Amino acid sequence: MIRSTSIASFLTMAPLALIGPMLAACADDPVASQAPADYAELGLGGVEEMKSDGNWGAATTCKPIPNLTPLKDPLIVISLDGLTLHLTDRQGTYDRVFAIGAGAIENGKSLTPVSTGLPTGLYTTRTETSKGVDGPTPAQQVWSWNYSCRMWWKDDATGKQIPVFAGLPFIRLEGPPSLAYGIHGPIDKFTQANGGTLRRGYVSHGCIRMDAADVVEVYALIQGRKTPVRVQQAVERKNEKAVDIAAKWIGQECAADADCNFAGGFCHANTYSGRKFCSARCTSTCADKAGYPGTFCVADPADTTKGMCVARSVAVDNTCRRYDHFVTKVGVKRFNQTTVKADVCLPGSEGWMGDRCLASTDCTTGACAPVDDGQVGVCTQACTRACPDKANYAGTFCVEASEESGLAGGMCVASCFSNDDCAIGTTCEVEGRNGQPTTTRKVCLPY
User: Does 255 share its domain with 336?
Assistant: First the structure.
């Protein structure tokens, strides 16, 4: 589904120092003079246990960093829709994907800003700088670009310092709009010896959270390197396949039943997206998985005599928008127990420009222009020069209509950064505006 944050909306974001109500100090910096002038950090958000009794357990112990050889030329790609961090070595063979927790959803958008609207399209880490290490008391905290051991955060409600970072690395990201964002460990159950428990969802106030074992591995592998980091909205894809962790769960993309490697898992078609997703058969209830949104047993739309497990539509999962061509269905009855209902994620089209559709009735405006040899289409509308935009969706652009679209003159299409942003049946290409070919933009073009 095409949901990339538009370049215009990204570049008009106010600096964090100007959006006071959103700000809360993640750490009361005792050495502020060492920090850049615009230093500010977003509050943590979603802390499962906000302890303030001083019984910190293992939270004030620095966690060991594995002895790994740093990568020669590392690259990090973070996907907000995929909830993944993908680390590769462009001069080696290392290639691994990690689960993450990203910024909570406010006004329909994650608090984690994408980098794709920047001139370079990237943030960078500063792990080539000297390492910062917090001490076990608040007075011993330091400011650093490159923490091998960070602990402290100030709770604005009480004014108390709490070691929610649990002695794990904190990898600060350099680049606009501020210095507020970083990659760090989980903060739920942060007093435990393992560094805490990750919730894979939209749970932070902007930073990227990882499992404790994962963040120490990433930290060790990028030491001494100023690593480029691309933060994109769309699911990252390689050879048309979603980049994801090996352990799949309900709603994750798949190509075959074997990809859904959990009890009872199978791969179900989604006509709207043209891709497939993991589900499991059920008779009335479904198993849940720690750290993931809950699931619900519904009648299979393809065979209503069978039950299938789908994800519940919840804010921590951005309702259903992170799943490719899923929409929220309100008050769906439980399979074999129709008095129980829930809001769930089921295949469908959001109906905006660039979304795939089966008929024009799927589109909130305009019509369904055919792609993929006419089996499905993408939503569009006729235009002369300009197209309407919609908050929290990709920007739109008016291009000359293709003969296959069934439209004459111009047609509205979605803007993009790469093919990852585009639905099946469209590709990200530079195209001139209808009637003004010298004005260009990267857009998802039907083929």
Answer: yes
Cβ–Cβ < 8 Å for 247, 84: no
Cβ contact 78:229 at 8 Å: yes
Yes or no: say if 429 and 443 are a contact pair by the CB < 8 Å rule. Answer: yes
Looking at the fold, whether 324 and 271 belong to one and the same domain comes out as: yes
Residue 1 falls inside a structural domain: no
Q: What is the pLDDT of residues 189-223, one digit of tens each?
A: 999 999 999 999 999 989 999 999 999 999 999 99
Do 35 and 133 belong to one domain?
A: yes
Are 84 and 101 contacting, i.e. CB atoms less than 8 angstroms apart?
no
Tell the residue number behind the tokens 């917090």, with chain if given. 134
Q: Is the model's pLDDT at 363 over the cut of 90?
A: yes
| Structure tokens belonging to residue 420 | 């990852």
């709490």: which residue's tokens?
Answer: 162
Q: What is the pTM of this model?
A: 0.89
Residue 204 sits in the same domain as residue 101: yes
**Rounded to whole angstroms, how far apart are CA atoms 236 and 418?**
10
- Percentage of residues in the chain with pLDDT exceeding 90? 78
What pLDDT does residue 50 have? 76
Tell me which residue range forms the domain holding 302.
247-347
Residue 405's SS3 state is helix
Same domain, 277 and 421: no
Using DSSP bridges, classify how beta strands 84-89 and 202-204 pair: parallel, antiparallel or unpaired: unpaired
Looking at residues 358-383, what average pLDDT do you find? Answer: 90
